[in-house]
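Consider the tokenized backbone below.
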């Protein structure tokens, strides 16, 4: 823009033959006007051309930042006054240096280029995308780009956040010390922070509570199916055997759990119910319930019999409906992105469609079943 005065401070000879005087620095950022225009490509009338919160040049006490020798060239160790994120790691140059307020009022604080630091006690190197050399970019470790270590984030200024001897980039549990870095199932998470270390679809906590081995994929909580599921104390242990014939009642034709005239061993759906003159099967055969770990011979959770019985009743409150279906949208496999039984975090209990993946089809079961929309289980109707 031409200004009709002797000097217009843009470093360029104008049609009137006038040029800025040598060394003129209209914006006071330490870089001469001519250098800003002809070499650096910065704005000679704006101390912070890229609005990152740092002055373009070096002129203490205000400007101490980007072009340290005011030569208009980005030299080693300097940040680029035309690029708010010199190293491209996702964190702004000023944030990495610990600024909570811009150096100059010329910074447009409404610009997305200005990122204040929420924790100036920790800083990173704005010229290195991976300041601590752990193999993770600073902006990956500080995922929300606010300059402070938040829950679930690793520390971009420390190569080993949990101090266990394994760098954050190679540590399979970077937020929980694990001296051996063990990983039983070979998935992304190590044993120290994996809720299901043997990848069998049952959490370690559930397996420990129900007597199966959390680190053995072939050992799952015992269900009543005539098989030694947990591999430790025999077949169907823990289930009553009233007539002491070696067969648990729930897998013995001498007993008929639902009273439909078919013995439990021969009945492929042991939790049918009688209503309005006829017998009704629930929508989950015994083999499905055995896979899910629910009680195949009990239709519903009740206060008198508070066991995990109805596959649709994930909350175990005696009814199946909206709140249960919402479990799928709180899980990592939300919004229909299926999580297969080979993936980290797969839970058998949520795979009610029984197709070895958890996702949209499972949640849709709630809207196809008679007990949907919050209706109580059959025995409670």
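A designed sequence for it:
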């Amino acid at each position: 823009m031409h200004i009709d005065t002797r000097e217009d401070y843009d470093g360029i000879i104008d049609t009137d033959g006038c040029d800025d005087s040598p060394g003129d620095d209209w914006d006071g950022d330490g870089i001469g006007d001519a250098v800003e225009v002809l070499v650096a490509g910065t704005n000679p009338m704006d101390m912070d051309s890229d609005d990152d919160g740092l002055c373009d040049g070096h002129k203490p006490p205000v400007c101490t930042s980007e072009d340290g020798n005011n030569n208009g060239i980005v030299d080693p160790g300097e940040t680029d006054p035309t690029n708010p994120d010199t190293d491209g790691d996702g964190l702004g140059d000023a944030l990495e240096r610990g600024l909570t307020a811009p150096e100059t009022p010329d910074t447009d604080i409404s610009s997305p280029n200005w990122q204040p630091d929420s924790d100036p006690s920790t800083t990173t190197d704005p010229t290195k995308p991976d300041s601590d050399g752990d193999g993770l970019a600073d902006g990956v470790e500080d995922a929300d780009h606010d300059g402070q270590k938040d829950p679930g984030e690793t520390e971009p200024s420390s190569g080993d956040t949990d101090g266990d001897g394994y760098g954050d980039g190679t540590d399979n549990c970077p937020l929980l010390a694990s001296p051996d870095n063990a990983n039983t199932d070979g998935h992304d998470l190590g044993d120290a922070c994996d809720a299901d270390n043997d990848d069998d679809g049952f959490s370690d906590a559930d397996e420990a509570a129900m007597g199966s081995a959390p680190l053995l994929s072939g050992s799952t909580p015992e269900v009543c199916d005539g098989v030694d599921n947990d591999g430790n104390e025999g077949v169907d242990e823990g289930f009553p055997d009233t007539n002491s014939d070696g067969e648990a009642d729930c897998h013995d034709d001498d007993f008929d759990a639902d009273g439909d005239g078919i013995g439990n061993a021969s009945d492929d759906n042991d939790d049918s119910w009688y209503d309005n003159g006829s017998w009704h099967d629930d929508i989950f055969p015994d083999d499905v319930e055995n896979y899910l770990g629910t009680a195949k011979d009990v239709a519903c959770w009740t206060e008198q019999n508070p066991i995990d019985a109805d596959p649709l009743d994930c909350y175990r409150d005696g009814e199946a409906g909206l709140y249960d279906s919402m479990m799928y949208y709180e899980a990592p496999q939300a919004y229909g992105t299926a999580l297969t039984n080979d993936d980290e975090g797969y839970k058998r209990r949520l795979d009610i469609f029984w197709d070895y993946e958890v996702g949209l089809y499972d949640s849709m079961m709630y809207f196809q079943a008679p007990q949907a929309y919050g209706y109580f289980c059959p025995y409670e109707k």
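Helices lie at 33-40, 93-97, 138-141, 204-210, 286-292, 322-325, 360-364.
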